[in-house]
Amino acid sequence: MWIVIHMDKVNMKLNAIHYKTGEAISIQVEHGRIEAIESIHEDELEGASLPFAAPGLVDLQINGYAGYDFNQLPIPDDTVSRIIRELWQEGVTSSYPTVITNSSEAIHDAMVTISRTCDQDPTAAKGIAGIHLEGPFISPHDGARGAHRRDFVQPPDWEQFSRWQEAAGGRIAIVTLSPEWPDSIDFIAKCVRSGVTVSIGHTSATAEQIAQAVAAGARMSTHFGNGSHLMLPRHPNYLWEQLAQDDLWTCLIADGFHLPDQVLKVVLKVKGSKAMLVSDAVSLSGLAPGDYTTHVGGKVILTPEGKLHLAENDKILAGSAQMLLWGIEQLTSRGLASLPDAWDMSSIRPASFMQLPSASGLAVGAPADFVLFHTEGHSIKLKNTYQAGELVYQS
Ligand SMILES: [Zn+2]
Q1: Which end of the chain is more exposed for a tag (fewer CB within 10 A), N or C?
Q2: Distance from Cα 395 to the centre of ligand 1, integer Å
Q3: Which of 285, 264, 286 is nearest to 276 (CA)?
Q4: Residue 202 CA, ligand 1 centroid: distance in Å
Q5: How far is the CA of 159 from the centre of ligand 1 (A)?
Q6: How far is ligand 1, taken at its centre, from the CA of residue 308, in Å?
């Protein structure tokens, strides 16, 4: 039982427990922004059990959800709008639709479709903070390439990228590439000058090439430890170098299957406040366990435990089927992070890394993108999601 006074559609006042401080607060929202946050005295609550309030989740890498896919081309007209709305039930208020390695025409078409949705659907536009282009400028080598199609992998090409960026209406905000290509340093510098964040991923680069990429302005590691070779020289190698580069922020898939706990533990310690969670979820996320056929992985199985693997080999993952809330639960239940820390890794950290207005979190003047939830043990029970002050999801 808690108190929400809806003054009108976007102006309201509600009471909750601050997810970080544990303090009872009253949040006042006006015109899509947090107008005021005030402490409440316990005797004013009259025994009400308040939900926690926390910033909306920000996913830097998501391929699809609930059967809808940013990479099954051509993307049907309503797909982007549907995914953004479906993500509200997962507490996600900002995301970066991720388009992976494909033919030049297919990437172009995906950019046009996402961009058109943003132009025509203001609600979806609010939820799309930018587009993440993962590839095609990645490693052609097995293991490092992951599930990306080899025939479409290519060296960095600024002219080509500029055409995609134009098709996207300038919305490509993140590019994942491998600095093993000779031209990558020049390409990274051009991205940085044009305000595009460069992330290192799906790479076979040497430690030296990683260091050069960072010197040129690369600032992020894409799903660190995944999209990697099964065997590596013990040192130096591209994993150690990315860990050691203090300027690199690190994205992690904490679904319980992609990275073992000891890797998560070490990366979280080394990267500290530069560690972030991503879902990297594929379109089967949000669906019931069962057998499925995908355009990338062929026949796959989503187990009741939440693991997505190839039907023919349960040791080969077919992407992640889990969202950020699940990742937060994984980190807390395994004792790898506190709930406020894990929440920040999935909300204000990616927001501040990408310099989004929501970076200040639950603060006066910030966009009213936040959620209310209860906890049962380590399980998070999402109650409400607000985007720009509007109630967009209620359990
Ligand atoms: Zn990837």
Answers
A1: N
A2: 31
A3: 264
A4: 6
A5: 23
A6: 15
What's the 146 CA to ligand 1 centre distance in angstroms? 7
Q: How close is the Cα of 201 to the center of ligand 1, in Å?
A: 7
* Cα dist from 350 to 275, 277, 300, 357, whole Å: 9, 8, 30, 11
For the segment 193-221, the average pLDDT, to the nearest whole number, is 98
Helix, strand, coil share (%) of the chain residues, nearest 5:
30, 30, 40
Q: Which amino acid is at 81?
A: S
Q: Supply the pTM of this predicted model.
A: 0.96
SS3 189: helix
Grade residue 73 by pLDDT with cuts at 50, 70 and 90: confident
Residues 6+ apart with CB under 8 A from 336: 254, 261, 264, 265, 268, 330, 342
28-62 tens-digit pLDDT: 999 999 999 999 987 777 667 899 999 999 999 99
∠ CA 153-133-71 to the nearest 5 degrees? 80
- Identity at 120, one-letter amino acid code: Q
Compute the distance from residue 30 Cα to the ligand 1 centre, in Å. 39
Query: How many A from CA of 319 to the centre of ligand 1?
Result: 9
266 C-alpha vs ligand 1 centroid, how far in Å?
21
Nearest to 51 by CA among 385, 387, 364, 383: 383
Amino acid at 236: P
Q: Is 193 helix (H, G, I), strand (E, B) or coil?
A: helix
